[in-house]
Design goal:
heterodimer, A: about 300 residues, mainly alpha, two-stranded antiparallel ribbon, 11 helices, 4 strands, about 55% helix, elongated, B: about 200 residues, 2 strands, globular
């Protein structure tokens, strides 16, 4: 350290010999002035305010200067165009008669669910309606809406089973409201004394279902022709064929009520209760399980034969 | 204790005591600090910046900063170290700003001789000596302005203001090795620039 200092001794001496520069005479006065400015920021704020006000005025004046006239005019015209455009289209939308909105969705089980949103006045109409859950022929509920009608251009073509609504198509999900509806219908049938079920119980206890709407006539030939004509029965073709192919089963269905007349009244009541419960539970089962149980029952019957 | 001219004995108050008194609200202590440091700081900043007007602004800013943020001084370092650190930082900021926005000053047109500042004339040896010394100081200042500002800062602190290496380390925050090497390199550069003077000597 000291060696370095000695090495540059001449230079250091010349640097030390440099004349000392002194501050100006009015240094302290100017310093006090600056300190007082720093202590009184109000003065500075007032100055800044005046500056900013003048700046704001100049900005406002600059906005409407002649150089900006074309740009402002073009902006004005564009704004009016946009307003007129949207006003026209909003009028078109308001003028359409059908103000209700439909949202069609499908579940994993293949059910078609249509949500109908009515006008704002009727809030109850916003409740989702599952058309597949209740038969369209059932007109007991006045709240139901008609399903959308599709008019195919090719009338000879087979209807698409995935898109076609079938009356026998039981839903997988049954709402509480629909359960109550079904229970009510069962009670009504009970009161009337009508044999409401198109179901029979096989010997092994598995429920079997005959297709409901198109088996009213006992004539086998009529049934067949009707199923061929109706486009709705394409989905249940398998089950129908199976039922039709086994004449014994049909005979049993015919014979079944005769056997029941021989039973006592208590046993009939018990059976009807069980069957009504089964019918409700049946509605919640999947199509696949239905087919499976049918095939199993048939196999067992064949084995018995 | 220092005896005054009038024969009264006055107690020499340290810088640290003055700043503590000023922190308690004694404005007289602040005036004393200004009186003690205004010339020292002006000399140092002038040698570092090379422009008297800028130097004056920086020194004023330094004292304003001391006034405003007096409570920030803690008795960790010497007061001189603290006030010099403030001055160095302000000078560096000013240099950076000047480099960013290059301005032209009318005072730069004239030579250093036309500048209005007082020079101590303790060793006034007549007009020849005065002319020589003025020429020499102008020449050295020119050489100082030519070397890198990192070297210049440290050379001025060590060789003109006569601070110790430890104090320079405290002021700059640099490691001791860096300080030494920079001072040596600065001296080398200065010697190269002033070699015609030393040859004559």
């Amino acid at each position: 350290m000291l060696q370095d200092d000695e090495k540059y001794k001449a230079l250091r001496d010349s640097l030390r010999a440099l004349p000392r520069v002194k501050a100006k005479k009015d240094f302290e006065a100017r310093l006090m002035q600056r300190i007082s400015e720093a202590n009184n920021p109000a003065v500075v704020h007032v100055a800044q305010k005046v500056k900013s006000e003048s700046h704001a005025k100049s900005w406002f004046a600059n906005l409407f200067r002649p150089a900006f006239v074309p740009a402002l005019g073009l902006t004005f015209v564009l704004l009016i165009t946009v307003i007129v455009y949207f006003a026209y289209f909003s009028k078109l939308n308001n003028g359409s008669p059908d103000s209700s909105q439909q949202f069609v969705t499908s579940t994993n089980q293949g059910d078609l669910i249509i949500y109908v949103k009515k006008d704002a006045d009727d809030i109850s109409g916003n409740y989702p309606k599952e058309y597949s859950a209740v038969s369209p022929e059932d007109t007991r509920s006045g709240e139901l809406f008609a399903p959308p009608i599709e008019t195919p251009s090719d009338f000879l073509a087979k209807p698409d089973p995935g898109r076609t609504l079938l009356p026998d198509n039981k839903p997988d999900r049954v709402s509480e409201e629909q359960k109550l509806e079904m229970q009510r219908s069962v009670d009504l049938d009970k009161e009337k004394g009508v044999d409401f079920k198109g179901e029979r119980k096989s010997d092994d206890g598995i429920m079997k279902k005959d297709s409901k709407g198109y088996f009213k006539s006992e004539n086998k030939g009529e049934l067949k022709s009707e199923t061929e004509k109706s486009p709705y029965n394409i989905r249940d073709e398998k089950s129908n064929e199976k039922v039709e192919d086994s004449p014994e089963v049909n005979q049993e269905t015919k014979v079944a009520p005769k056997k029941k007349t021989n039973k006592t009244e208590d046993s009939i009541k018990q059976q009807t209760d069980e069957e009504s419960q089964n019918r409700i539970s049946r509605a919640t089962k999947k199509d696949s399980t239905q087919n499976k149980s049918d095939s199993e029952a048939e196999e067992k019957e064949n084995n018995k034969k | 204790m220092v005896p005054s001219k009038e024969g009264k004995v006055t107690v020499k108050v340290t810088d640290e005591e003055l700043i503590f008194r000023f922190q308690e609200g004694d404005v007289g202590a602040y005036n004393e600090i200004v009186a003690r440091y205004k010339d020292r700081l002006t000399n140092y900043i002038y040698r570092y910046v090379g422009n008297f007007d800028e130097c004056d602004d920086i020194v004023q800013d330094t004292f304003v900063k001391v006034y405003v943020s007096k409570h920030l001084y803690k008795e960790i370092a010497k007061f001189s170290t603290w006030i010099y650190t403030i001055a160095i930082n302000l000078a560096k900021t000013k240099i950076v700003k000047a480099a960013k926005y290059k301005t032209f000053s009318i005072s730069d047109v004239y030579d250093d001789e036309s500048k209005d500042f007082d020079i101590r004339d303790e060793s006034y040896g007549g007009p020849e000596v005065d002319a020589n010394s003025k020429f020499l100081s102008a020449h050295i200042q020119k050489a100082l302005n030519q070397i890198n500002e990192n070297y210049r800062e440290l050379v001025v602190l060590r060789d003109i203001e006569d601070f110790s290496y430890e104090e320079i380390v405290d002021m700059t925050g640099l490691p001791m090795g860096t300080v030494k090497s920079r001072i040596n390199r600065g001296r080398e550069k200065l010697q190269e620039l002033l070699k015609d003077i030393y040859k004559e000597e």
